[in-house]
User: Fold this.
Amino acid sequence: MTDNEHEIEQPDDRVPKRVIGTPPPGTSMLGEAEARDAGVTGGETPGITLQDEQKARRAEKLVALCFLITFLAGIAFLVSYVVFQVGDPDATGTSNLALGSSLTVAVLAMAVGIVVWVRQIMPKYALVQERHEMVSGEDAREVVADTFVEGANESGFVKGKMMRRTLLLAAAPLGLIPLILLRDLDNTKMKATNFNKLLRHTVWGEKTEDGRPLRLVVEGTGQPIRAADFNSPGGILSIVPEGYEHDMNVLAKATLILIKFRPEELKSGVNKNWTHDGIVAYSKICTHVGCPAALYEQTTHHILCPCHQSTFDAADGAKVIFGPAARPLPQLPITVDNEGYLVAAGDFPVPVGPSYWERGDAEAEARAKGGQA
Amino acid sequence: MVRITAWRRHPLARYAVLILALALVGTAYATFVQVSRPADAALASGKADDVARGKSLFQAHCASCHGLNAQGTSTGPTLIGVGAAAVDFQMSTGRMPAADPGAQVPRKPLPSWVDSNSISDIAAYVQSLGGGPTVPSGEQVDPALGDAAKGGELFRANCIQCHNWAGAGGALTRGKYAPNLNESSPTQIYEAMVTGPQAMPVFNDTTITPEEKRNMIAYIVQVREQRDPGGFGLGRIGPVTEGLVAWIVGILALVLAAIWITAKKRQKS
Amino acid sequence: MSELTTVPKAIGGPSNWLDERLGGGNFLKRNMRKIFPDHWSFLLGEIALYSFIILLLTGTFLTFWFQPSMEHVIYNGSYAPLQGVGMSAAYASSLEISFDVRGGLLIRQMHHWAALLFVAGMMAHMLRVFFTGAYRKPREINWIIGILLLTLALAEGLTGYSLPDDLLSGAGLRITEGVAISLPLVGTYITFFLFGGEYPGTDIIARFYSLHILLIPGILLALISAHMVLMWVQKHTQMAGKGRTNQNVVGAPFYPAFMAKAGAYFLFTLGVVAGLATFAQINPIWIYGPYTPADISAGSQPDWYMGFLEGSLRIMPAWEINMFGTAHAGTLPLSVIIPALVPLGIVMTGLALYPFLERWITGDNREHHIAERPRNNPHRTSIGMAGIAFYGVLWLLGANDEISAFFHINLNWTTYAGRVLVFAAPVLAYIITYRICLGLQRSDAEVLSHGVESGVIKRLPHGEFIEVHTPPADDIEAHMRGKQPVPMLPVAEDPSGIPPKGMRGPIGKLRARMSKAYGGEKIPLESGHGHEEDEHAAIGPGEDHTASR
Assistant:
């Protein structure tokens, strides 16, 4: 139905010869695409039109050439597989290039060959087939309806009221079985209504085996931090809890960003009792959908979440100043132990991370208890 | 009405409309983009010993924003205590002297008076004012001496949230951005970490040790120099360019193939 | 070579054996020469079909090495910058496929490119079907199957994207969790059941793996087969043209021409996928690093087909409601629920219902086998373009950080612009498309009544210059005359001023109003006499009563 010739040819008697420099007839008004759409059977003879013998023979050579290229490229693939080994990015890159390009050439050459074959050797078809309405005939429908009624009566399903009802009854629990079997998908071995209680706490509220509060350690090195060492205003560190450096479930809730401020930069949103010498710890888990929000700008004190661009003001209790997050990043109370290392002074006052149904207004709850959220 | 219709049918009309549309898009784009002008022409350089030469260069080129004694003004921060590393970073990347007080000062070609001598002179002067981080030695930033795998873990923990996993850079708030790291020399990367230029936070040597910094530099350099084994890297920014390629190259190529397969040559009568 | 006169023994023997057992001869007799109409846009769906086949083949290859396990291992494979780094077994085995299996990287990349083309092909095909009205009776069932396929493809993409357990896919998983847990009432339950406890747990990769390689592809395969069978039974639509009617189908026979073309197109798809996998790197997981919930990269993005969801999350303002204050219930994070569910809901439900809404409004109960030109149903085309604009804005905003970084546009402005455009762009697209459609219809009518500019200038005896117009070619004229008015409900009031039954209530009145706006002939092809091939042009508004209630 398409036409790859841009020019629409018309019988000579209809169209005067084109004047050079003017648009070809048809194209300017009809546009190319339409002309193609319209190419239907315009210049085509309906039925089967055989190809010109001579042209077909020429085309056959072309097709054979294509298939030969496929053969050679296929061989090249096999050879490349043996010759090129993988390993470092360089070797792998060479292997990928050799295997991939030989496969591409092999496949595309065969595709081109087949298209030439169809277009220039097979006859041109413009065959017509009748369509019939999808609906079945009136008599067929009647027969089906009669058969259905007859069968329903024969089976006794209509009369057997008791049987019908007990069958329905029997089906109900069967339908529930696949659902109920999914209950143990959760491995916590706890009542489902208690799931949300897990979300309220992080390990920062726990103590080490010898009863010390958990130290803040640097993510990636595992080193604890002396408050006196973290002394450059504008500094930031990604922090994980001591002893849980590789525990994914813990990291998903307890990861912190630790920011060092000049004391005068802190605004009222920050709970100063929970800071130490201008060092503030916020949850790194965004309150929107839980990405680690850690793009910190030391000039503006913005914390930006890269996923959905929620922006928090770190100098003002990480309150939301832009984007879809609805709540500030929770602040973790921190202090120093007797060796001068930063430790958690307790758990977050509110649940960290994304909101969920059972969360409630935890900030208001914390405030009511006397703390600051 | 008749005239408008005639105009619309003019052979040039479609080009006129196209050009108009392009111009509109271009203008709209231009208004969004922060324009950066090249730096002013350079001035002559001074002479004397390091600090003194540095001071005179400073007063000629920097004092208008940072104050005659580097105490800072309303347009530029104080430089007392920022250290030689900050001066070396800002000037060797062409960010200082700044051309335009935009949301962020971009990396740009160095003005002609800025070379390693004039930078080290000014750095010496600023260092003399109130100390601060110094320029690292060549050994401190040698990627060959670092452990790339260990550096990679720190890089992912502290850097990629702004600079992207391959150091391709990314957007920050209100027109600011984290630049890509491909042009940064190991020394500049080190200096940026210890001084925290512009919006970037500081990673001081007492919390991330110089050795750990060298590991990170080793990772950055190794990954940026490594070949993309799967073909063109598409900017190494992930699914955005991949999606574009899937549509623009993949679907377009297949549509062209479909047009060729179904095309019919008209038979001439 | 001489031509065949009988079936060769090598084929005839086995065929005979099979026919004696299956009786397939009757089927083949009727179907070997089944006619398939030819148009390039009819091949768009085949992109998706062939991509699916490529996905099955490459995916099977990948399963031979991939370990769907979140067990913590220390990497000691070939990729130096990660040696000695702790990671999950899934990530380590994905690295092994990339760097330690010959052809592994190629196949992995082909799998990913084919996945992108699979969804892209589906979407392009769906738009073609929509804009040509090919979903109309009797093809509504196939349209619904198509919508199901698209939805499943998104789920299949999401589960596959998460499997390598790299830092990028983990970010996607985290967002999935954040969305799931935000759902009212059931959020925590769904999350705990899905992840086997708290996020991320140690089960999710294995669970997504079974969904990704077994359940979803199984359903996809079944639905794709049904899609093909229905297409086969109902015969493909065709474009209007000379000799083509609603009662016939004109084209090439399945055997041998269409079969060869389809085979060639499969090879083209495979070639494009292989070429992309050779020359364009996709999902370089070794650069991303292993997943940890503590880290994230700038520019973390989903694959393109999830981009519109990402965009809608990004432009949402911060709305959250605590319905019962501090009670431990009743938190509604609207800034997650609305963007995660509403745009997807609008697009998918709108698409699924469109054939039925259109039928309800137009009262059109006839079978349609001629694909409509988009211009000839301007309201449908405009609604489609408005949908594309809506989707497009969200999609674009899904990449607003990359746009901001690349073009140096203020990130916050892109969000503000998105918040306006998501409402303004569809309206604009609607109005502009509607005008363009009418303009094109007018130009068709002009071509038919005045002919085509020939480019020949004639000087008349009295000195006036005119351009000679020439009638359009037969086939083009036939194509244009395939236009039919959009059907309308019979809304005429009877002599006593009472509207027809079913049009009296408020809904009925609305229906009648919408029908009047949607249907009818806006720009008649020509006034006056009809044309011999234009048999349907006589069916004007109000003549089709079959569907009126």
Observations:
- The two ends of chain B are 42 Å apart (CA to CA).
- The interface with chain A takes residues 11, 153-154, 156-158, 161-162, 170, 172-174, 176, 178, 196, 198-204, 206-208, 212, 226-231, 257, 259-269 of chain B (CB under 8 Å).
